[in-house]
Structures are given as structure tokens and as C-alpha cells.
């Protein structure tokens, strides 16, 4: 058996020259613990998911994702509902899930703790048929993710994301959604409709302050557009853990929900934008993923 490490060489705006450094460090750290290392480097979107399946097929006992939220999502999606656990080395611009799980930002310590950890279980969310481990939804966050992901966007990293988000806060036009959960049905013109397994997007932006990754539920956060000025003024609450106090914001727990819009919706799963249809189904899969994060 081996430990597989799947490395995104450009996560977090890293230099491509760092590929060899990350790969050699990963191999050395694993071999230091007396185990065999299989190191993979991603080359395109979706590649981490493919590599994780290959690693499982080759008998890996642990698969470690070294990258940002997108890399973690791809690897976790391949490991969900199976016996092989996920380890994380956070190297993205947001690192929302890694922060919540207490993953050390130093690769050496994160690797050691993953190798030595006893696997635990966490929930996995699903939106529009795509799995997510942290946060998914429609609205301005999906719009920003879509813009950030375009080929013409050369401003990678957190600074580039902030520039796009700042423009969107001024120009974004909210849509109307009809949302049905196990307990209620309502229509709202919303800036955000978020399905949160974890607490934060990343960088301390806590969209669902009371969410837990192991409670068998998702937190549904809906932020209604009252006025653009109010939306702008309330943005700092993302970083103070007080989203529930935002006028027009509601947070409720759910296991399954349907969201319907007149126009096809762009949605995101863990920051990856996807073009969807006019109806999206969200649900939680309790205890669907095994994790080793120390």
C-alpha cells in the first residue's frame, strides 16, 4: 500500500517552478514516515479527480490533496462513499475547509498529521448533481467564481478574486428564486443562496457561522436584496461571524432542498462554477467522506 499525493502546481498563484519542490518534499516526508509515496501532478481541470481514482485503484491507503478548494473538491468527490480517506495540504487562495478542519498551513506538519491521523467521517453536500465538501450555491458568489474562472482573467490568487468581487458588488443584478425545503417553500429575490457544509468561504469570510461538517445537515443561507447600499454596508459581517444579523438574511438547517429560477442558473461547488438549468436540487450525504487531518 502507498500514500498518494495529488499536487496542483499553480494553486494559490504558485510559480510553476515550484512543481519539483512540492513533489520532492511530498515524497521525502512520506518516506520519512516509512511509507511508499506516489506523487501525481495535475495538468488540467478535473485531472485531480481522475488521479484520485487511479490512486485508489492502485491500492493507496490515503490520498492527500495538495492545493486549493477546487483540488480538494475533485479529490474528495472521487473518494466519497469509499473507504480511502482524504488528507489535505492547503495551498489555495481561500482554504475555507482546511481552515475549519484545523489543517496546519505548514506542509511538513499537515503531511505528518495526515499520515498519523485516525480517519474520521464528515458529510458531503450535493448541488445540481455535483458533490461539494465546503460551500455551494447560486447568486453573486457563483457569478464571481464564473468571472474568475474565465480564460481572459489573468489576475489569479486572492487579490484577483477581490477585484472581481468588488466589481460584482456594484454591478450584479439579483435573480428571483423559489426555494422548497422539507419544512417550507418561499420565493425571494436574493443576492445569495448558499448551501453550507462548512463555515466559511475562506480567508475568514464566515457565511454560515454555526455550520458543522458532521451534523448530517446543510445550512441554507439566503440573503435577500433589500438595497445595494445595504448589501455593501453589511459585507463586513462576513468577517465577524454575524451574518444572521444582516437584514434580509435567513439561515435554516435542511437535508434536501429544491431551488427554481426562470432563467438557467450558474452555480458553484467549492468555488468551481458550473452552468446549470432552471431547477437545482441540493442534498446532504451524511458521513460520506473519511478524512485524515490530525
Instruction: Specify the structural class.
Output: alpha+beta
Oligomer: single chain
Query: Low-confidence parts lasting 5 or more residues at pLDDT below 50?
Result: none
Largest sheet: 11 strands, antiparallel
Number of helices: 8
Q: What general form does the structure show?
A: globular
Mean pLDDT: 91
Q: In percent, how helical is the residue content? A: 25-40%
**Radius of gyration, in angstroms, nearest whole number:** 19 Å
C-alpha termini separation:
20 Å
Pattern of helices and strands? EHEHEHEHHEEEHHEEEEEHEEEEE
Share of residues in strands: 35-45%
| Number of beta strands | 17
Structure report:
The chain is of the alpha+beta class and 294 residues long. The protein is built from 8 helices and 17 strands. The protein has helices at residues 18-32, 47-57, 69-79, 96-100, 107-116, 140-148, 157-171, 228-234, and strands at residues 2-7, 36-41, 60-67, 86-90, 120-127, 130-132, 135-139, 175-181, 185-196, 200-202, 205-206, 218-224, 249-254, 256-260, 266-269, 272-275, 279-291. Strands 5, 6, 7, 8, 9, 12, 13, 14, 15, 16 and 17 form an 11-stranded antiparallel beta sheet that branches. The chain has a 4-stranded parallel beta sheet with strand order 2-1-3-4, with helices on both faces. Strands 10-11 form a two-stranded antiparallel sheet. The protein is globular. The model has no long low-confidence stretch (mean pLDDT 91).
